[in-house]
Amino acid sequence: MNITKADCRAIFDAMSDAILIHEGSTGEILEVNRGLCELFGYTPEEARQLRVTAICGGSGSQLEPALSLLAKAAAGSPQVFEWQARDRAGRVFWVEVHLKPIRFGERDCVLAVLRDIDRRKQAENALKESEARYRAVTEGSLAGVYVIQDEGIAYVNSTLAQMFGYQPEEIMAGAVLPQDLIHPDDLPLVLENIRRRLSGELEAAHYTFRGLHRDGAVIHCESFGRAVEYQGRPAIVGTLLDITEGIRAEKELQDQKNLVNVVFSATPDLLLLKDRDLVYRAVNPAFCFMLGKSEEEIIGKTDFDLFPRPEAERYWADDRKVMATGVSLVQDEYATGKGGARWFQVIKTPVNDEQGNPSGVICSVRDITDRKRAEEALQTQTRVLESMAEGVTVTDAGGKIIYSNPAFDTMFGYQPGELIGQSASRLNDFSAAESLRFAQEMVEQLKTKRILSGEVRNRRKDGTPFYTQARISALEIAGKQYWVTVQEDITERRQVEEALRQSEASYRIVTEGSLAGVYVIQDGKFRYVNPMLAQAFGYTPDELIDHLDPSDLVDPEDRERIAGVIKRRLAGEGLPSRSYFKGLCKGGSVIYAETLSRQVEYQGRPAVMGTFLDVTERRLAEEALKASEEKYRTIFRAVNDGIVVIDPERGDFLEVNQRYLEMAGYDRKEAATLSLEKVCSTDSPFTAQDAQELKRKALEEGPQLFDWWAEDRDGHRFWVEINLTPTPLGGRDCLLAVIRDISERKQAEDIRRQAYEELEQVVAERTAGLQSANAQLRCEIEERRRTEGIIRLQRDLALTLSGKMGLQETLRLCVETAITITGLDSGGGVSGGPRFRKPGPGLSPGALPRVCAAVGALQGRCSQYLPGHGGKTRVCPPARPAGIR
């Protein structure tokens, strides 16, 4: 086959790659194809006048390596490399260069084939920015993420900080310690888990504890933590979930239902609900008012019963479309009511049943007739440019500004109209030479491409420099050339990008080291999973990302439901929520999973981002707890003592067992109405007030054990022993009363008490008899003592007088004296013997004068026998007995 020179030229120009032939000795470009001219913006003639160095991009230091590679290729060594090139407009871009020595026109040359790989390079740069995704994943996570290191908190995300009522900076700065966030009773558990992981005893830990909110409220937390190396030192990376909401979920659900009912009835918007057959099932008062009909006249009807047929057919078609696609419909349409045809904004949303199948349509309708009229009037008066968020200017061929919109004036700090007639170059942060060169290059590029975009460094009126993303296009109006510039302030974006680049390493270790699975779903595929999620299902991240459908990891019986959840998330329905399902591992085993997900924007398009937790152990523990609860409930009902659970605030009986009902005579229906006030007596100390005092002591001082006189249903009273103990039950503080019937024991105690009283009476009578005998015996002993004292007195007197008197006379005197002193009756004389009266304890005061008289008589009678004393001898009476006072 003969190929002509023209054919070769056609083939040469038809090549999609840019081709040039370079003469190594002179540096000339001998030939170029059409692809090179299009790539670099030159004509063939202009290109052949260039040197290779003219199309090299980058700095001047890159020219020498370029020439060196050309020399190697010319020497016979083909070269393949990536290089930065520069086109005619000055745009620098990446090319892949193939150099090969050839013979061209009797000269040794180099054939250079250049392929534009700038987009590929941009993709590679985009990969470098992937760390930003990790930050988006972590900061956007619905689970709290933390890093603990050196007994402090090195990092927390905003979710965790908000969970405890703090800002992340407060916690990471050390102002808040781990123990400040933990309930004192659970602090030892948490500190021990931290210690064991940091010491290497445990690699990971999963447990729950009670946390303390900044305002003192108690929150329930579930922690997943793993020991890692963070910034070269041991640390713990983990996630924290607030599971307090699970306790309040049921109440909140009821509150939401009530709120929906209130909003449904009170909102001025028209609300209506249709079933899958498009029959009206619910309407609010506003909709009834619009149609001029009652609710009863609307329920059970269709659009064909209420609206003109053309309107009804349009509504019917839209409703069917919403249910078929599962996507909400928002549009403006007109409807006919009692006031005639009006414009409405209609939002139609599909309603699905529990299996995710369409079950109807809910419509929210707002009357926008007045707004429509206002918009039509506004459109005739307002220009589109003045409503743009970007700054827009129009300059003439001489560079003078002839128009600027409000956004542009604000961006540059000028008053409206102040820039009109000014040179556009005054807004650039360039020197005069740079501004001139920029203007020239801009004009040249606009002549060939008609549009120019890129980042520009500008200067505000106050001199502040800032960056904008500028798009400049040429516009010809009435034969005149104008330049339209649209600019967007990107200063803040550049700062944010720089900050993101600096923190990307930290976010990568947090996400990759998380004990909770993290995922991003888009277009029915996993676009990102962290190692934890992949490991939970027995895969590697590469096996999941861009390969498996999320439904491949879901047990068949849950697939349809979970697919519906993902679909609704992508449609933007509802708030972030939890989902539970059975997961299917790579090996076929089943695990129980919990996910928290929400809609996000990922790479500019809607996606579902969420966290995954393997809750298999918790699920099994809950089933075991349920079995344990049933066992203890059986014991509660069968125990022989009465048991009552009491509300500590109101005193109501929350639960009673069968034994108490039998003891008090109530049936199971009546048990729901029982309280302390109802079962207490009216007699003190067994009244309701006494019971309240005992309840207070149990709550403040601890368990109370006491006897109580109880009343049954018929008013009969009986004794019980009550052990009242404060006990947490079902997540709330309660009082547990264990009641035992002690009526028989009380009767036995009464019998013992009566016998004891009778015995005491017998003992008292016997004691009184013994006391009387003892008193009589004491009297006899006293009498004998006095008699002995008299005898001793008589003996002393006898010895005194024996010297002058005869023995018989002396004895007689002594006897008389003794009788007189002791008060004995001496009527019988000596021979007759004394007659004793009842002895006393001693001489009474009245007996003292008689004793003195007797002593005086004795002195007178004895003095006549004592010569030499002249009758003046005085005999002193004996000492006063001890008994005389």
Report on the structure:
With 885 residues, the protein is α+β, with helices and mostly antiparallel strands. It has 30 helices and 30 strands. The strands form 6 sheets. The protein has a 5-stranded antiparallel beta sheet, sandwiched between helices. A hairpin with a 5-residue loop joins β18 and β19. α6 (131-139) crosses α18, α27 (743-801) runs antiparallel to α28 and α28 packs antiparallel against α30 (848-863). The protein starts with a helix and ends in a 22-residue tail after the last helix. Residues 824-844 and 865-885 have low confidence and may be disordered.
User: Shape, please?
Assistant: elongated
Number of helices: 30
Which consecutive residue ranges, at least 5 long each, have pLDDT under 50? 824-844, 865-885
Strand content: 25-35%
Tally of extended strands? 30
Indicate the structural class: alpha+beta
CA gyration radius, whole angstroms: 57 Å
The major sheet is characterized as: 5 strands, antiparallel
Distance between the termini: 173 Å
Query: What integer is the average pLDDT?
Result: 81
Percent helix:
40-55%
Strand order of the largest sheet: 2-1-5-4-3
Summed up, what is this model?
By secondary structure, the chain is α+β, with helices and mostly antiparallel strands. The protein is elongated, with a radius of gyration of 57 Å.
